[in-house]
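Practice problem 4.
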């Protein structure tokens, strides 16, 4: 049996660790050689600052840097002025909460979110709710842990001001029915903020079709460099959002007692940015688009079905998301703490995550201390799944007898 995609050769980490079965893409994706080469190109050929020098190398760096904004806008079907460069999804989501939420939310307002959220998407708004004396409300999940349109509809009231919601759960792998949710929210003039960190590697995102008001993700989740991310915002809302950092390059005019920031998006980008990372992100976009999201989804689903069929036959294993929408499998070895079980997987050179995955609310909802999480992606194949299943069987047997 052969895999639909044959891309392992493109990833140096896999070439340098031939025994590695990497199933931790939900934490960070591996980087293809083209991304690494682009990082090297910046540092070796024109490694200077952007937006400052008038000399040739600075012009080259600035041109490449801004090309990433253009490519990202096309990638999301957005306008360039709606694309803000950040340090990552967490940074972007905090910027929205602090720069927009602190001014937009008033006492008595309601902020609607869910128990599926990553801490980076719920904690900033927990802080806003506390400081502004607003109410943080949670959409009730169904029996499988999903967000449904009906439950969302029942959560909204005339006091709901903001909805903060994940596109894809990093624990359960579920896809949120965002288009219907956003439409319902906008009927009540509610602002919708989307955490797309887990979604962006697995599915095409069109912000105009979604009609979301803000959306954030990290480059490293989609095979780009670490330390770089994207905040998309509708221009009218970015204009309303205040910078949370001040300094060089984001300012237009400075007087002794006042200042005028630059226009969107530059008013949010202060100091020397992660230039190499921003430029290398171009190659991650091109790599994903060359493969195609349709092919990515077919590959993931084929391996996921293969894995689930085998996993369900193993005694002593609990699967929490049998009907996951993406390549994420949340499970446990019944008689083992996930951290203990993870050591056996490591002995088999299998890299997966164990713990609460920075999403303690859904772990509490599942009524467990944590889970094991395996995430299937484009560089995995049927041999990887066979090795994974073998390790699950060994772990289940070991802890049953222990």
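Answer key:
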């Amino acid at each position: 049996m052969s895999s639909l995609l044959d891309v392992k050769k493109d990833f140096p980490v896999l070439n340098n660790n031939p025994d590695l079965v990497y199933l931790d893409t939900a934490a960070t994706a591996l980087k293809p050689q083209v991304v690494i080469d682009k990082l090297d190109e910046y540092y070796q050929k024109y490694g200077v600052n952007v937006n400052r020098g008038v000399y040739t190398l600075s012009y080259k760096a600035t041109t490449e840097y801004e090309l990433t904004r253009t490519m990202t806008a096309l990638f999301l079907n957005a306008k360039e002025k709606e694309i803000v460069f950040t340090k990552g999804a967490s940074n972007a989501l905090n910027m929205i909460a602090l720069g927009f939420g602190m001014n937009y939310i008033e006492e008595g307002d309601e902020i609607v979110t869910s128990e599926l959220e990553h801490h980076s998407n719920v904690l900033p708004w927990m802080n806003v709710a506390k400081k502004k004396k607003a109410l943080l409300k949670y959409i009730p999940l169904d029996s499988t842990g999903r967000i449904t349109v009906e439950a969302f509809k029942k959560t909204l009231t005339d006091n709901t001001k903001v909805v903060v919601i994940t596109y894809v759960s990093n624990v359960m792998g579920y896809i949120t029915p965002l288009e219907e949710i956003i439409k319902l929210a906008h009927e009540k003039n509610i602002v919708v903020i989307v955490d797309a960190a887990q979604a962006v590697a697995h599915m095409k995102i069109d912000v105009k079709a979604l009609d979301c008001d803000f959306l954030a993700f990290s480059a490293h989740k989609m095979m780009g460099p670490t330390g770089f991310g994207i905040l998309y915002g509708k221009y009218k809302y970015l204009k309303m959002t205040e910078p949370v950092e001040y300094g060089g390059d984001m300012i237009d005019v400075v007087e002794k007692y006042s200042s005028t920031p630059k226009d969107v998006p530059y008013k949010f980008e202060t100091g020397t940015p992660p230039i190499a990372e921003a430029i290398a992100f171009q190659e991650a976009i091109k790599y994903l688009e060359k493969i195609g999201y349709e092919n990515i989804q077919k590959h993931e689903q084929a391996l996921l079905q293969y894995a689930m069929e085998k996993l369900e036959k193993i005694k002593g294993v609990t699967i929490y998301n049998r009907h996951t929408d993406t390549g994420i499998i949340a499970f446990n070895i019944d008689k083992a703490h996930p951290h203990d079980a993870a050591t056996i997987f490591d002995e088999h050179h299998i890299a997966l995550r164990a713990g609460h995955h920075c999403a303690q609310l859904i772990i509490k909802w599942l009524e467990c201390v944590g889970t094991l999480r395996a995430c299937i992606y484009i560089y995995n194949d049927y041999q990887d799944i066979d090795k994974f299943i073998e390790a699950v069987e060994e772990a289940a047997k070991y802890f049953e007898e222990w």
